[in-house]
Amino acid sequence: MIKKGILLIGLLAAWNVQAQDVAHYTPGTLDEGVVYYLPKTQIEIKVTATKVTYTPGELCQYANRYLRLQGVSAQPEEHWEIKAIHVNTIGVPDAEKAYSIKVKDKMVTSQVELTEDGIIKAINTKAPEEEKARPEKPAEKVKRVDPRNFMTEEMLMAGSTNKMAELIAKEIYSIRESKNSLTRGQADYMPQDGAALKIMLSNLEEQEKALTEMFSGYTEQTEKTFTFYVEPEKDITNQVVCRFSKKLGVVKEDNLAGEPVYLSVTNANSLPQADLEAKAKKKLEGVIYNIPGKGKIIVKALGKTYYNSEQPITQFGETEVLLTNLFNKKVNTRVIFNPVTGGIAKIDKD
Fold this sequence. Notes:
This protein is of the alpha+beta class. The protein is about 20% helix and about 40% strand.
């Protein structure tokens, strides 16, 4: 149904019509006019998880003996962590709220602007350009420095692993002494300015880190974002959106290998639902729009609350109408709608 309606929109949205008669739209019944949709709310949940990979150093068994590093593991390890959970609401065309603006002689709508999905944006004016979300750039992977670039011939030619570990440890201590001398201004060859000092310290820190990782090992982190969508038609209590496993990361809601990520949505409207339903049964004559309600959204995982806030939820609101006398030939009414909620963002006339 939606695809057929959108095809008609592409042909009719730019047509300047002289008047309007708004009614529910049924595909194949429109003679002349413009079809538009009101949006319904989808809750967008983005779970960003980090994969942490630990690789032991080749000299890990000597970490405590020569560098006093305790608890260094000799076994590789991999696990996932939840970095963040972001929640947003988006508007999508509601197939049950499709309306047609037909031509009449006594009323004026000089322009009807729609989104690419057919959701109404403006009448008799142009909606402001929407800021396009910038694509998220993946975190740049830090290139690991090969510690052998800083090893002397004596270290590389050592007759045993134990001897190599001893020589590398001495080099690490020597680097630390050089760093201390530079920062205290006691080095034999001090740099001429602050920039040169910064470069020297950075080089020494790079060498120390690379050589120390031969004992301590190193970790690499890779981020990945998983996106899920939920359309709340009523209150939701602890719906499992997905699951999280320290071993597998983010998995589908039916994969019991992970712990659940829960979504709860509570209708925060002050108007009783019975009143809303009674109002919806009334015949609407004019440009129909949404008055979105509010929902309290809570997302929990692993015993922690990651999101707790209110957001506009169209399904928890009601439908209203801009009366047809606002669009007669004596009044130039301009309306801008919020394409996410279907509510009025701005209205004026002259």
